[in-house]
Design brief:
Helices cover about 70% and strands about 0% of the residues. By secondary structure, the protein is mainly alpha-helical.
Length: about 210
Amino acid sequence: MLTQPVAGFPRVLQESSTSCSYLLWINRYTSALKREHFMNTSATSIWASIAAFFTSKGYWAALAVLGIFMEAVALYYQYVIGDPPCQVCIHTRIWVAAFTLLAIVMCVLPARKWLNVNGHVLAIVCMAGLWERCKFLWDVENRRGDGTCEIFLNFPDWFALDAWFPAMFEVKTLCGFTPMMPLGITMAEMLVAASSVLVVISVLALGLVIRKPA
């Protein structure tokens, strides 16, 4: 940037060059501020969209679709691939069925904050129970700990799901290795990863619902 006249160079051109330098600097600074404002606005808009989704009935609808899909995959591996379910596999199916039914009920109930809070608390319980069973299944598959399972579900008569819905909840074999899934990972590994993500999402959704104005 020119600050002093240069001998032999017209003063008007020097002043013009200095003014252009100032204008160029101001233009660059303004552009940087606009980019920063755009990025901040975009980030805020994206976060607002995420928060709006987690606190809407669309979240529960997506959760219901996910649960139905997971149950369909389990039945596909049982009846098409030929991999019978063990006791812990049935436990995971029950937890998946629980959050699926919860999601369907929440889609029907009116959008009241206290109902949403209780629904999300129950969702966390379901996801935590699902994660615990998936982790137990993974431990059995990798021979960690002293985890074992039985050939019967051993539920009380008032909750005999294996007797009421044997095609879905009847134990067929002892725990062992789970079938391979796409990407070269086992079903137990896939379930641990999926349930971990669901726990995090459920906690996040509860926090957003609590912060949302009534």
